[in-house]
Specification:
This protein is an alpha/beta fold. The chain has five helices and six strands; from the N terminus they run E-H-E-H-E-E-H-H-H-E-E. Helix 3 (90-96) packs across helix 4 (98-109). The chain is globular. It starts with 15 loop residues before the first strand and ends with a strand.
């Protein structure tokens, strides 16, 4: 049996998926999303090519942080200037920007570099139930706990 290798003229069949994050732990959600964005669920997956699909996540505000993560996990950002580091606890971040909690978790699970950035661009996260991608006709995807 020979190994499949995509040619330059082969078109990558990208689908759109819709995921409802209500009641799902952020870590379990983000592992599934990272696999879909990278294309690891497809039989034609190639490690050094972007074979993944687009994902729209709704109800990010209803995703769950388990254990003591809401009090202990910190999100840090800096402008690289001395004394410019800001730290925000996970519960505060989820209250103010719930979409960034899921985005940060997924981004950390993707490859670093240009390939990972291309995969990350296919992720769309929304706080509520409304999204702007009805024209793409995303297929609902259920994530088992």
């Amino acid at each position: 049996m020979s190994t499949f290798f995509p040619k330059a003229q082969d078109q990558i069949d990208r689908k759109w998926f819709l995921v409802d994050a209500t009641g799902i732990p952020v870590g379990r959600l983000s592992t599934v999303l990272a696999d879909i964005l990278s294309g690891k669920m497809k039989p034609t997956w190639t490690p050094f090519l972007d074979m993944g699909d687009h994902v729209v996540v709704i109800n990010a505000a209803k995703a769950v942080l388990t254990g003591r993560k809401p009090q202990q996990k910190m999100y840090r950002r800096t402008t690289t200037r001395p004394g410019s580091m800001k730290e925000v606890r996970a519960d505060v971040m989820q209250a103010v920007h719930p979409d960034r909690v899921i985005e940060a978790a997924v981004k950390g699970m993707l490859p670093k570099g240009p390939l990972g950035r291309a995969m990350y661009r296919k992720l769309k996260v929304y706080d509520g139930a409304e999204h702007t991608h009805e024209a793409q006709q995303p297929v609902p995807l259920t994530i088992k706990l």
